[in-house]
Amino acid sequence: MRTCTFLFPPSLSTHQSTTILLAPSVRKLFADTLVFAAMHQLCIYRRHTYFVLSLFFFPPLSFCYFCLLGACCCRQLKGKGNFLEEDFFFSFFPEISTRKTERERERESSHSQRAMGGITQIEADPADTTRYLSPTVRFRIPDGDSESRPKTALTTLTLLGVIYTASISGGYGLEESVSAGGPLLTIIFLFLIPFLWGIPVSLCVAELSCAIPSNAGPIMWVNVSCASWFTFCTVIWTAFLNFVDNSIYPTVLADYCATLLHLNFFEKTLIKVFFLGICAIINIVGVQVVGTLSVGVMLVTLLPFLLMFLLQLPYGFDWERIGYVPENINWSVFLPVVAWNFSGFDSAGNVIEEVSNPNPTFIRALGLMIISALATYIPPILVGASAEALAETPFDEWDNGFWVKVGEAVGGYAMAVVVTVGGVISTVGLMTTLLATTSRSLAGMGTLNAFPYLSGWLSQYDPKYGTPINATLVNAVVTCLLSVFFSFQTLVELDQILYCLRLIAILVVFLELRFKQPFLERPYRAPGGLIAASLWGGVPIAFSVVLIVVSMFGSVVLFFGTVVLVVGTMVISYVGVRFFRPEGFAGELVEEYEDADMQTYGTVLEHESNEWRKTHPNHTFIDCEVSEDKGGQKHN
Q1: Cα angle vertex 66, ends 61, 71, to 5°?
Q2: CA distances from 465 to 88, 284, 430, 538 (A)
């Protein structure tokens, strides 16, 4: 006969299901708030544009949202709870808890009696349809991704450097937002966007990255929860986004050099090739070098703005000029530029497998990143608006490179040189980090077997350095071609549309897994239950939709280009998967069964059905032994 023993490693035997009991009074409070907000905005904002904006700007729900966020942060700082614990959000409300139901307590007591008194003493109740073994859903790593795993080399500080250089890397590029919306509106949105976009996206990415750890990042997250054709859509959007976003920075660097040295097209091309070659070599050597380099780049890019702020501090700030708001705000330029300066929060998911102790490290790095971003963006705006030498300069003349003029106004030519050098180093560091994260994303596409005949080659990691050398080389070559043949403006316009499309896909996956996979093993959870998760995912989705709409209506060409991009990728993906990849892509979620009392009592449970055992003879947590039956015959 076959003897099946359930073996539970200690790290995998701590799952306990919980039930959220939402009091009627609290349900009514949330329902009344939502209904009041919807009716209030429907009556006031009749035009569709303002109604879309009201989705995330209406006062009642926004007030609740920011109160929730502030309370979580305060309690985290006071040490009264983990910011990402499952029960943390509901600890604020006495009537809401994640306590076990009476039925679950009876089941636990029954398990204890079986463990201490013997399994055969208590027979299972046939009328009780509740399974004694509750399923835990885990991510199964594809076979092609298990041979050469990345090294765990990133700590909190180096991960902070990677995220900072991938999403911030100095205040360079922020000038045009001041030109389009004025300093006051820019500062307000710089404070709001981290809460509307940065922090919620970070929480969602943290949960998905730890629950589904893969260097494929968003592509793997979409793959395990959505249809195959939508996975291929995400593959196309991500591939285009990686190449387009990477190609912006060599173009910026070459344009700066051409302005100073009066270079021609051929000389600019040589600079781009040399620049990308150096970045590719650094990435091939290893991500630890990238992480260490990112920390240095972060400090160097922060230094010029800190010096400008300290030089202006003795002279005070011109608050009247800082509070200026133009009569005609160019939203199609202002909103995408401000949002672009906070894009890239999800890039950390591509290196989550290379983070030492990812659970606390990831969250600490994200919190420090928000503080670093505000310290980078706010001071130069205050200095530029308050510098006496620039008092007569209108804000609509602020364009790329204006920080050099601000540095010269407060610190002379030497300060202007420092700002310029900081801009060059910022571009180099940002390109190096983005090449690291996007190359691992490209290698992750190979892990999914998204590209026939190329997937295995792309997903290979160098055995010596532990880096995806083939994906890095392909990434560098395609990035170089785009930067040579496309202009900066065209690349930036495409970048924001593609980024928002992929971000919406990520957040939709987060919400779908929260609602449809409650037993998914999540080493870290975004705080709260389904209501809070709806806020973490819904608010940035609404903001991303508004950003796409605003960007599309800024240009007729961009509008039709976006429509063709979205519809075209969906049609191509559906047809391609339907006829060429009906089996889907590698990577899936699987159910595994365990019991919380196993670790405590060491009990061997034999109550699982024989049908389940027959269909899972080689399951990971089943040790099948060969024994003799009464007839003396052996069975496998």
Answers
A1: 125
A2: 41, 7, 21, 40
Which helix (H) or strand (E) element contains residue 441? Answer: helix 402-447
Q: Can you name the residues that pair with 154 across neighbouring β-strands?
A: 355
Q: Which pair of tokens denotes residue 314? A: 């003795």
306, burial (CB in 10 Å: exposed 0-12, middle 13-18, buried 19+): middle
Distance CA 50, CA 41 (A): 9
Q: Encode pLDDT of 571-629 as tens digits.
A: 988 888 888 777 666 555 555 544 444 333 333 333 333 444 455 554 444 444 333 44
CA 562 to chain centre: 23
- Give the torsion sign (CA, 349, 354, 360, 364): negative
Show the CA angle centred on residue 446, arms to residues 441 and 449, nearest 5°. Answer: 135
Query: Where do we find the tokens 């009592």?
Result: 601
Question: Is the per-residue pLDDT at 541 higher than 90?
Answer: yes
Tell me how far apart the alpha carbons of residues 149 and 162 are, in angstroms, rounded to a whole number: 20
Give the position of tokens 């030089």: 311
What are the distances in angstroms from CA 566 to CA 237, 498, 572? 9, 9, 10
| 241 close to 499: Cβ distance less than 8 angstroms | yes
Mean pLDDT of 32-41: 44
φ and ψ at 153, to 5 degrees?
A: -125, -10
Nearest CA-CA partner of 445 in 172, 170, 235, 151: 235
pTM: 0.65
Q: List the structure tokens of 333.
A: 């330029």
- Total residue count of the chain as it appears in this document: 636
Tokens 């060969």 map to which residue?
Answer: 626
Query: In this predicted structure, what is the pLDDT of residue 152?
Result: 55
Cα(187)–Cα(183) distance, integer angstroms: 6
To the nearest 10°, report the CA torsion of 129, 131, 132, 133. Answer: 180
Angle at 301 between CA 296 and CA 303, to 5 degrees: 95
The end-to-end CA distance of the chain, in Å, is 8
Taken in order of first residue, the domains within the chain and their CATH numbers are: 140-449+457-580 (1.20.1740.10)
Contact predicate 620/30, CB 8 Å: no
How many other C-beta atoms can be found within 10 angstroms of the C-beta atom of residue 358? 23
Query: Are the C-beta atoms of 587 and 214 separated by less than 8 Å?
Result: yes
Alpha carbon 397 to chain centroid distance?
A: 34
CA distance linking residue 536 with residue 264, whole number of Å: 48
Dihedral-angle region of residue 79 (phi above 0 means left; psi in -120 to 50 means alpha; beta otherwise): left
| 138, β-bridge pairs | 590
Residue 464 CB-density burial (10 A; 0-12 exposed, 13-18 middle, 19+ buried): exposed
Rounded to whole angstroms, how far apart are CA atoms 28 and 267? 67
The C-alpha atoms of residue 197 and residue 190 are separated, in whole angstroms, by: 11
Helix axes 265-285, 287-312, angle to 10 degrees: 120
- The answer to whether the CB of 142 falls within 8 A of the CB of 396 is no
Structure token pair of residue 394: 């209108």
DSSP string, 62-117: HHHHHHHHHHHHHHHHHTSS-TT-TTTGGGG-TT-B-PPPHHHHHHHHHHHHHHHH
| Cα 91 from Cα 75, distance rounded (Å) | 10
**HEC sequence for 591-623:** EEEECCCHHHHCCCCCCCCHHHHHHCCCCCCEE
